[in-house]
Amino acid sequence: MYHVAYILGVWSVAMKAVVAERGQVTIPKALRDKLGIRQGTTLEFAASNGTLVARKAETDPVASVFGCLRRRMDTDKFIRKIRGDADA
Fold this sequence. Notes:
alpha+beta, 2 helices, Pemi-like Protein 1, Chain: D, two-stranded antiparallel sheet, 88 residues
């Protein structure tokens, strides 16, 4: 079901979906296509003034390993060290 709405200062077509028994919702295809949401896309959810807000989560590959060394080391020095350079 579609209806036109004025949301956050923009006229847009709002779409409805029914929440299933386990809390699952199907995002309408038009929105998935427009926002580039595909299978495997991670979404973040928040509540804002009684409104559910969903957005694509940041998928920075560096962030997933940041801090794994548990010590401060200059990046260039670290790379030289793992390559086995003598001046590391």
